[in-house]
Design a protein that fits this description.
By secondary structure, the protein is of the alpha/beta class. The chain contains 9 helices and 10 strands.
Length: about 240
């Protein structure tokens, strides 16, 4: 794993009226690293992903991608610089086939592809996420889990260096979870760096090199998964004072 920081976030802050959803958060993702972004519901994790991906602009702080400031850039520019994401609530293009959804990513990413080469690349990506042979299937015919797979294939079509996963493993049965863990692990083996919001602790322990834990908008821990998950402040954040 490369020790250089691919993503470097410093002092990241976002307010919604009187609510400070993200309060001076620092974090980094090194090249080839999987970092888990953890915390109870409402702690600001998805807002951090929105700030990194350009869905929101920060009120303060810096977001550096390979040393370049990207905070406040529109999402399409950040995507073309090498950042792709999935969403907590799955977003697929409902009037299109699976192949057409992936083709949209291939056409508008930073290395744009068209024609027969793009069709083959789309089918290869669908096979990679477990949707092989289903290129002509309308997205409305997919189960929720398969829609998640499709959304991931479309994100990978952008050929990112940094992949943001927002609870991508949530809602999977035990067999699907193990398949999902192996798929995420294979993406890292291909050179992707991953920042993943996740509540599935089996996945966190299996996949993450480091974990960053948030509570009420603030970062409260950062380190190796086993050490972070045992910290008293982290336990209190998840279980409450009486159970810590």
């Amino acid at each position: 794993m490369n020790t250089a920081a691919l993503l470097d976030v410093a002092g990241l802050t976002r307010r919604f009226g009187g609510l400070v959803a993200v309060d001076g958060v620092d974090l980094s993702v090194r090249s080839g690293e999987i970092v888990g972004l953890l915390g109870p519901n409402g702690s600001g994790k998805t807002t951090v992903l929105n700030l990194v991906s350009g869905a929101l602009a920060p009120d303060a702080g810096r977001v550096l991608l390979k040393g370049r400031e990207i905070a406040g850039l529109p999402p399409y520019r950040i995507a073309r610089l090498g950042v792709a994401r999935t969403f907590q609530l799955v977003r697929v293009l409902g009037s299109m086939t699976c192949r057409e959804n992936v083709l949209a990513g291939l056409a508008f990413g930073h290395s744009r592809q068209w024609g027969a080469a793009a069709d083959q690349a789309a089918d290869d990506l669908l096979a990679q996420v477990g949707l092989g042979g289903r290129g002509a299937t309308m997205t409305g015919e997919l189960t929720y889990i398969d829609q998640k797979r499709l959304e991931l294939a479309r994100a990978l079509a952008l050929r990112p260096e940094l992949l943001l996963l927002d609870e991508w493993l949530a809602g999977l049965n035990p067999t699907e979870l193990q398949q999902g863990i192996e798929l995420v692990r294979s993406l890292r083996a291909q050179g992707l760096s991953i920042l993943m919001v996740e509540h599935v602790m089996d996945a966190i322990r299996s996949l993450c090199d480091r974990c960053v834990v948030m509570n009420a908008g603030r970062k409260i821990a950062d380190g190796l998964p086993a050490a972070v998950l045992a910290e008293p402040e982290v336990v209190r954040a998840y279980l409450g004072e009486a159970d810590a």
